[in-house]
Design goal:
The protein is an alpha+beta fold. About 40% of the residues lie in helices and about 25% in strands. The strands form 3 sheets. The chain has a 4-stranded antiparallel beta sheet. Strands 6-1-9 form a 3-stranded antiparallel beta sheet, with no helix packed on it.
Length: about 260
């Protein structure tokens, strides 16, 4: 079964014009097999159902599925000093793109995905040791020309410190992936690209706020909480930010209440 991320990657892999041509080809095939009146029914029924559903959602008669993962109200993602380090945070943005007509189906792109999965699996296996606080993944089309774009995967990860991030860079999975890129992939697959950006912010030099937003960035981070019976539960790091010191930027930075 395809995950939501898989479907999004497939959708972004093809241009709108390509999807329209695929739909036109399928419709032409149906018309070639069935009588015209019958062949037109599937498209008319599907379009009618989609329009009706959207109108019912807009009118408030159906629940809006786009709000399923949205945090209701103003919130901020926090760290627990001690448990999550000393309050500072390192941010590592890692991206991979395919500048090729086949997009994610281009030669070598699956190897990039495999290397990324191995790296993150190694870091997530023991977050206490690795210092990984969490990450969020975005799938987006990166514009390359006025009429085309390249499918791009962007991982934004958060770490307790640059020292933890440097240790991640020396891990077996990361070194293996970097060796594959440097010695083979760069020359063999000139249509592939990778990038990264690194930042570190001291305590009181970073903050965030989300209002009616889905899980993204630090808002997508979770933490494990041990219950009274010893059972572990995963919960969001988001907390309400409408009252008290968390309602203002200065308050969230820890330099004042307003």
């Amino acid at each position: 079964m395809f995950t939501t991320a898989d479907l999004a990657l497939i959708r972004n892999n093809l241009a709108l014009s390509t999807w329209l041509l695929i739909g036109a080809a399928i419709q032409s095939l149906i018309f070639a097999i069935l009588p015209p009146r019958v062949a037109a029914l599937p498209s008319i029924c599907i379009l009618t159902l989609v329009l009706a559903k959207n109108l019912l959602i807009t009118g408030g008669y159906l629940k809006n599925p786009y709000l399923a993962a949205v945090y209701k109200g103003k919130a901020t993602a926090t760290l627990q000093e001690g448990e999550d380090g000393d309050g500072r945070i390192a941010i590592f943005i890692l991206g991979a793109t395919s500048n090729h007509p086949l997009g994610i189906l281009a030669p070598g792109f699956n190897d990039i995905l495999s290397n990324l999965q191995s790296m993150w699996a190694e870091a997530e296996a023991d977050t206490t040791k690795s210092g990984l606080l969490g990450k969020s993944t975005s799938l987006l089309p990166l514009p390359t020309t006025p009429t085309s774009s390249s499918p791009t995967i962007l991982n934004i990860s958060y770490w307790q410190s640059l020292s933890h991030l440097h240790a991640f860079a020396q891990s077996p999975a990361h070194r293996s992936g970097w060796e594959w890129w440097g010695t083979r992939a760069r020359k063999r697959y000139p249509h592939l690209g990778i990038m990264h950006e690194t930042y570190e912010a001291a305590k009181g030099r970073w903050e965030n706020v989300y209002d009616g937003f889905g899980p993204v960035g630090m808002g997508a981070l979770t933490r494990k909480v041990v219950m009274d019976g010893g059972e572990e539960r995963v919960e969001s790091r988001l907390v309400p930010a409408r009252e008290g010191r968390l309602r203002t930027m200065k308050g969230r930075l820890g330099v004042g209440d307003e």
